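Because showing beats explaining, we think one record worth quoting, sequence and backbone structure tokens together, and here it is:
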Amino acid sequence: MPDPQAVAGAAPPYAEIWDALNSRRVVLFLGAGASIASRPEDYRWTIENPIWPPSGAELSRHLSSQVYPNGETDSDLARAAQYYEVRKARAGLRNTLRRVFSRRFPQGPLHDLIATVPAKLLVITTNYDTLIEDVFEARGRPFDLLVQPFDGSPLSPGGNGLDPLAHPAVLYHRQAGESDLRPVFANGIEALHIDVESRDVVYKLHGTVDIRESARDDYCVTENDYAVALQRLGSSVALPMFLKAALAQRRFLFLGYSLRDWTYRLMWHQVYNDRDCYRSRAFQSWSIQRSVSPIERDLWLKRDVLIFDMPMNEFVAGMEAGRPPHDPLT
């Protein structure tokens, strides 16, 4: 295992990351930090000034200030959202989240970098916004979209006349070139196959906003939602086989993604149970995030994830400076 202190002061291995990206041997994980990476440092999100997406803490403080006694605020988003739902019902929570996320946010250097990787990408994101979809569409990159449904909206009913409570969709899929998401049920999850070697895939692990139609919004945000997420991801029908195989065979690059996220931890546990070389350097992964504690760094280093505590734009600049002049896959 690398020395934690040496890793803490080192620059990311840009050439190695490029090699993994261009040879389709890495999965991108995008968290809230990826969506706000290009915000000006002095920008502070409010519901009246929603130019950029909010951070998790900003969204949590907004929700809690509306319902907590005496205008108190809470930086724990799942807890604040849970209490907001108790006070204003699920419809009230969905309406507020839609007001926050149903807009075209500015795309920054990180999203431009991702969209210009020559090889096909598998991107997993916990963000509700549509930034990654927007930049792919702006660049003319067709992609398959997968959405994990959670909150019982019309996006996550049963199908073919089935009772949506007894036969819920376990996943939604929009094939490249199509306009609508289609439900995938438990009895069809194994048959779903996408060739991730030849097609870009975006998998929205915590649901999504649908800018065109509010009824199709779907969010994993409350404590109860996370309980459902953990239950589903712990089942044998949560992930299609092609996705399990890709996760088991590829390295990970976390961008603005908190490794404390429990849905990722459960996915990671399942994936690494399938890896024969759990501690092999061939599967060493990387994380770019801010304000990482030494304890968190050491814990994830033991899981073969090297954490680099640095501004996202600094990482993007390093990647652009190290971009290969020519890629044989293009």
